[in-house]
Design a protein that fits this description.
The structure is a homodimer. Chain A has helices at about 5-10, 15-25, 35-50, 55-60, 75-80, 80-95, 115-120, 135-145, 165-180, 195-210, 230-240, 255-265, 300-315, and strands at about 65-70, 100-105, 125-130, 150, 160-165, 185-190, 220-225, 250, 275-280, 295-300, 325-330, 330-335. The first copy, chain A, is an alpha/beta fold. Chain A is elongated, with a radius of gyration of 27 Å. Chains A and B meet through α4, α5, α6 and β2 of A and α4, α5, α6 and β2 of B. Chain A binds a DNA duplex through α2 and α4.
Chain lengths: ~350, ~350
DNA sequence: GTTGTTTGATGAAGCGGTTTATCACAATCG
DNA sequence: CGATTGTGATAAACCGCTTCATCAAACAAC
């Protein structure tokens, strides 16, 4: 039905081999094609509207030029969190750039985790996994099939390839910002306990308080989560301590969690940032929509996706000298939820905002 | 390297043909395999850990069991709008259920539209396109290659396959709700003018006002867009008319646009819903996060994705009797942005909320 | 003038499956 | 009992492309 390489060869009056070589611009091969025949072949191909069949090519070469992307195991996460979108954007950018394709896998409602792993077949050369659960069956499968993989947001272990951002420093930045603004009683709403990022951020937060010689209250470091409902609930509980005991600042697990915190605070008749300052994490587009706009730790999400794709492709192409566990830098995006826009720093010309003692 | 069908045949002491037939549970074929050999083959396959190579299979059968998904041409849309996530969820559900795979394509920053179309190759059997621009090169390409496609949210044209929701009725529902609540001066922030949905919704809105014998003010039906910034800007302009002339209710292009409207209203020192009621469209997860939570027209986004995938697969498998242009029903999700929760309906037991004349 | 070497080109063997055509043999039938 | 039917199995062609091994001719070197 479709026009094949044979048809081109016939029309050009050459061998199939020549067509293949000419069309692939083979350079390192032993096969040579003269300029004259090369042009005859081009003409014939153009005339017939020939496009090479990638399936046949894959079978012959053993390469598909397709990467897999496994999105995290939660509908809510995928649906509600802008994170996966951004990471996908980054991945796509690199994948397109390197002339690869992307095959999508998710373990959404209805199928078990392990069913999802089954789907990963030899159509793909490598796999990108976002926020894999601890004991994912996918990795076993990949290892058995010898499919290289790179995970995004995963605790780096020996020999693993994973892209992370600097969660520890992120935690520090949030804390440092609050400390500079004069806060003494700060709470941290921790993210999901089974991802390492949560602990690293908390550690950064703790270390800064310690270095600043601020009393570390363990009861202000509470388990919350990456959902705004959880942020709301946790904050409500913190507020029940009464004015004297409640924190003057909250470092939330992520932007959505911060949204919940802000709501709880406002619902209690208090003001952000005047009564309680709030810092988020991620700096997704959502951070501009909170009221007030959220001061938050910026995570280079797209870059992480891009980096992961780049690493995986580099590995597939046998490139050398790839750092298998890069940690991308974070930064602090200052908006209005901490009052820093009113009086940036204690050491600046303006007064620091009033902070309840 | 990997174990092939030949290895299995050798170990089982049968022909390759028999292995192929046995493992595919061929029923309609002329090839028969006895129960005894069948089991020998199963054993051998299990023993060797054989998995069939989908590439080779594709080459032989001409089918790849892969669908393509082309996401819309805008970074902001993909990144910020929960829509594409939800539609993807729906598609994945059906795709997994029917044992297909999904290949992702996007035209993100850096590559031209037409480059994106180039990427679509014969690796896919069919293509799903979300919100295609008018004169997309993709469709030409698909037609040339004879790749069937189904579009989601696209003006249905003769012979096209596309999934839509009932935008006209959606527009009506929003308007009817407001009319029931006693509003007389209503505005509509229209969505992007180059998608048909915008016009259909506006038409529904207009028709209801007309039927209710409410004066139709064309200057209150303004061009806005699917972004919250646009909603904010448009609403600010509406508010500049002064209290006597400003609308008592606004029907926004979508939830994000409604968010902008709410902000503008509150920034002007007015209240939602007491001064101005707001209705959104889409009912994405974001609608629960506006303040107050948004009354909005629910669009069955996941179902639309699922439906599109189902149609495409049905077509590929030669199934008959498929409606090529289904229109899925919408409904109204009533929350707090119109005051209906305070006094549901004029014909109910409660008083309708006070509405400025 | 014989021997290398380079250039241009090709046939044929895969890659790992599916499928058609063919065949041996046992069972059923008039 | 010869003819027909059904069952079980297989060899070989094919899907469309890459690539190895090979070769003829032109060219350079000794």
């Amino acid at each position: 039905m479709a026009v094949t390489i044979r048809d081109v060869a016939k029309l050009a009056g050459t061998s199939i081999t020549a067509v293949s070589a000419a069309l692939n611009n083979t350079s390192g091969s032993t096969i040579r094609v003269s300029q004259a025949t090369r042009e005859r072949i081009y003409d014939a191909a153009a005339q017939l509207g020939y496009v090479s069949n990638p399936i046949a090519k894959s079978l012959a070469t053993g390469k598909t030029k397709v990467l897999g992307l496994m999105l995290p195991y939660a509908d809510a996460f995928v649906d509600q969190n802008p994170f996966s979108n951004q990471v996908m954007s980054g991945i796509m950018r690199e994948v397109v750039h390197r002339h690869y394709n992307l095959m999508l896998y998710t373990a959404t409602s209805g199928i078990q985790k392990d069913r999802a792993a089954m789907l990963v077949d030899s159509k793909i050369e490598g796999l990108l996994v976002v926020m894999p659960p601890e004991d994912s069956a996918i990795f076993l499968k990949c290892k058995k099939r010898n499919i290289p993989y790179v995970s995004i947001l995963d605790r780096p272990t020996a020999g693993s390839w994973s892209v992370n951002s600097d969660d520890y420093t992120g935690g520090r930045m949030a804390a440092e910002h609050l400390v500079k603004l004069g806060h003494k009683r700060m709470a941290h709403l921790m993210g999901s306990p089974d991802v390492s990022t949560s602990h690293l951020r908390a550690k950064g937060f703790r270390d800064v308080l310690e270095e600043a010689a601020i009393e570390l209250r363990e009861d202000l470091i509470v388990q919350s989560g990456f959902d705004w409902r959880l942020g709301l609930d946790s904050t409500e509980q913190l507020l029940q301590r009464g004015v004297k005991e409640m924190p003057t600042a909250i470092f939330a697990a992520n932007d959505l969690c911060a949204e919940g915190a802000i709501r709880a605070i406002r619902a209690a008749g208090l003001s952000v940032p005047n009564d309680i300052a709030v810092v988020g994490y991620d700096d997704t587009w959502y951070a501009t929509l909170t009221q007030p706009p959220l001061t938050t730790v910026h995570m280079p999400i797209e870059e992480m996706g891009e980096m992961a794709a780049r690493m995986l492709i580099a590995r597939l192409e046998g490139e050398d000298e790839i750092d298998p566990q890069p940690i991308l830098p974070v930064s602090l995006t200052v908006r209005n939820s901490c009052g820093a826009h009113l009086a940036p720093f204690v050491d600046g010309t303006k007064q620091s905002p009033p902070v309840r003692q």
